[in-house]
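Subject: Predicted fold for CS domain-containing protein, 285 residues

User T.R. writes:
Posting the sequence so we have a shared reference for the thread.
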Amino acid sequence: MAIISEVKDEGAKPSASSSPEPKPTSFVASFNPSNVVGFLEKVFDFIAKESDFLGKESVDKEIALIARVATDKYYKKKAEEMEKKKKKEEEITKKAEKEPTEAGGKDKQTNPNLRVPNKGNGLDLENYSWTQTIQEATVIVPVPPGTRSKSVECQMKKSHLKVGLRGQPPIIDGELFQAIKPDDCYWSMEDNDSISIVLSKQSQLEWWKSLVKGEPEIDTQKVEPESSRISDLDPETRLTVEKLMFDQRQKALGLPASDEIQKQAMLKQFMAMNPTMDLSNAKMM
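User M.O. replies:
I've generated the structure tokens; pasting them so everyone works from the same file.
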């Protein structure tokens, strides 16, 4: 349920010649996340009925500004969540490295050393290799030449992968680093000597450190996404990835991040649209 009402400016002083201020009017409507546009239509219908706001010459610019601010807040929240998760992982790793585990009080690293990713941003292991993009992971499992598809056993569940040949111990059998979308995953035989498996990631906003939990992990800070791969992403994911990459470069150079740059630009634009308002000390949160 959404309720929107006008807010009375406590700092405003009524004048004798001004007309009486309109009474706040409540707006009540149910919000269905699957029909956001329908909700917005109701909001604008209500505004049109109760005020002359939509008749202003600058209404398009003001609405666009509101939308840009809201969008910026959305992506800022996404970036903060990822940064928070990254910092938490770094803290856990540092704590594990400093924790004394030997009788002499010497520090011993409990986590395996992170490995440098292969050219596909994955890792080449003894029994299989894997690569990844921000959207999916691809696994290549070598098998004896002449192997047919009917001899292959491949089970792709939301959080588990099992691959092998019938009558033999599985080559891969473990919990995936993160969840996948089984309905969008598939496997095939390549040249009758390897099994190719494509796993569609459920979360397409971060890199996997390993294919299966417990296997050697890669250093995701050394992942190098190709420009061509970024261009293949859907608009929302691509915008998030490019924003994170830009902010990372800005941070390394000691420069303002994208959200700060955009906020300053929007503040200047709003001041130009409302020259009579004193926003010299305004800060955008």
